[in-house]
Amino acid sequence: MGWLGLDDTDSLAGGCTTKTMEELILNLPKNVQVGTVRLVRLWPFASGRTRGNAALAVELQCEDEEFLIAHLNSWWMNELSPLKGLISPSHHSDRPQVPSDPGMVWFDSQPDELHYWSAVQHHVAIDDVPPATKSWGGAGVIGATAAVAWPGRTSTWEAIAWRHTSDGSKPRRVCLESLEEIDSWPGTFMSRDPRSGTSLIAPRGHSPVLCGVRAKTELEASKALAHVLSSQHTERSAGSRTFMTNQATGDHLQPATRAMVEEIEVHPQRKHARIQTSDGIWVSFGEGGPVNQLSRWLKNGDIVEMKGLKSDDGTFHLEQLRVVSWNARNKQRPLCSVCNVRMKSMGRDQGVRCPKCKLRQDDTWDDVPSEPPFLDWVEPPVSSRRHLARPLDFD
Predict the structure, then answer these.
(1) Of 264, 333, 272, 330, which is closest to residue 301 (Cα–Cα)?
(2) pLDDT at 277
């Protein structure tokens, strides 16, 4: 009995590690028992990532471990090692692309979960990876080991179907009516953008994945995918599997930070907000919806709570935000204590006077009551969230 991990077998030119793992599993010797396959998302800023930066792991049981290792070694040499060096430019991101560098690991027992937490929250160097019982390949062993180390105490599920065609440029056909139906099911999440009605279950680009449906339980994910695939308006799939995942767990984030706002800069066109706080610089992008709207409302001296991920340049990318307390946005002259009329200035350093009864008093201002556009935690729209982001309504 042991754990197999796999990562970095794809590139923007094509492929998907879920499909690669599926082919490996289907070709295992008959006497090998396969456990639940895990899909584990890792640090979103990893320099060598492709697409959603996911690694795969599965527990295998076999009485003859030496025989199993020999089989895995042969599969690596013939099927996985040739995937090294795949690369394609991105048409959606300025981030430099790096060649694929597959990695596969075998552990007799799960390594310390500390490696998972390191790999999901920040950069991990290959020299810091705990040694496996047997390993193959290059940088992919980082993610492969993290996937094996994932404790899985908090999880969701994703049911993934793959395409028959090998031509990733052909448009995917996924029934929009079925998609709308499963989106209303209580257990599914992030299936459809409620603002535009567009699908969030089908990837773009040269991927063998037809679609993937996310849900809170294994049964709900499997049923939802089956419903979509049963429609005559969805293209025929080449197989499917339901994965246990760390998606929507929030594992990538540290606990909320409380800080004082010191300065706000808002991009005049894109509406990105750069928030200088007593605890560093936080950035909210225009696509962030309510998070960006609340960010742009902030003023110096406001107290906020924030959750986000530290990027390579040292800034934090804001994912969730709440205003704890705020300063007044405007001031007005006080009301006359006698006739309740708004007092007016008599001139510089001359105080204020009631225009009705002529009562005078010192030059003072009252704060105008104001409230932020949102009083509770806010998050980006579903189409702009990370795979790992835990929806607020989960808690």
Answers:
(1) 264
(2) 98
